[in-house]
Amino acid sequence: MFHTYHNVKVYYECTGEGKNLLLLHGWGCNTKVMAGFAREFSGTRKVWSIDFPGFGESDYPNGVWTVDDYMEMTADFIRKMGIEGTDIICHSFGGRVMIKLAAKYPELAGKIAFVDAAGVKKKRSLAFHLRTMLYKLCKKALKSAFLKKLLKVFGIDAEARVKNAGSADYKALPDCMKGTFVKVVNEDLTPYLSKIKSPSLLIYGENDEDTPVSLAKIMEKKIPDAGLAVIAGAGHFSFLDAPGQVMRILRVFLEG
Predict the structure, then answer these.
(1) How far apart are CA 184 and CA 202, in angstroms?
(2) Which residues fall within 8 angstroms of residue 30, CB to CB, at 6 or more apart?
């Protein structure tokens, strides 16, 4: 099924009956990755799952989107489906969307389970900042023949540096999504955490390198009503690494 938001078709699935539960996937994922949650809860819940624009069967965004754009789309979906106050399970990028949504529209969210959620910026090393400075210098060099030649003297190929810059996730994206990726990952949502009124559970893999437990502890401290469960041996997809344990914890949180 499809929901239309500002001429963008958003794919969604709905299974089961009962109290509403909304699933929000991570960056580069889709409803299929969240299917385990749907199977687990559709026996007692009405489970809604969406493909964010740019992923799965949904259209690409109509321009460069920010977290705010994805948040407003999700808020519109909740209102149009009449599921205000729905409980929510969000993974990774879906956590970014929910941080802003819960802070701005508290009436739309019930209990929130942040699973390996993103949103708090990692502390960057000196090496990272030096690489960023060099990348910016190389971009300038592409517009200056003199600067380009000067960098060559030091063994730096400005064109190659700019062409090969970016993470693996960034390089794998179609050109129409690269601007959105940059906008999304560079926003620190820490200031919004204290505004979340929903009861919140944080579930993080012990070995998660994308959204490490250290960031989860910041979220636990700043969200007024939050608890943290760390899954031993699991990574960024803790619900795939240890599905039984994660589902049991969610059952207690959502149904208890």
Answers:
(1) 21
(2) 51, 55, 56, 57
Each residue's pLDDT tens digit in the chain (256 positions)?
999 999 999 999 999 999 999 999 999 999 999 999 999 999 999 999 999 999 999 999 999 999 999 999 999 999 999 999 999 999 999 999 999 999 999 999 999 999 999 999 866 555 554 565 655 766 677 788 777 776 777 677 777 665 666 566 666 788 889 999 999 998 999 999 999 999 999 999 999 999 999 999 999 999 999 999 999 999 999 999 999 999 999 999 999 7
Question: 57: burial class by Cβ within 10 Å (0-12, 13-18, 19+)?
Answer: middle
Q: How far apart are CA 184 and CA 37, in angstroms?
A: 25
Model-level pTM?
0.86
What CA–CA distance (Å, rounded) separates 89 from 238? 13
- Cα 124 to chain centroid distance, Å, stands at 19
In the numeric block, the tokens 């949650």 are attached to 37
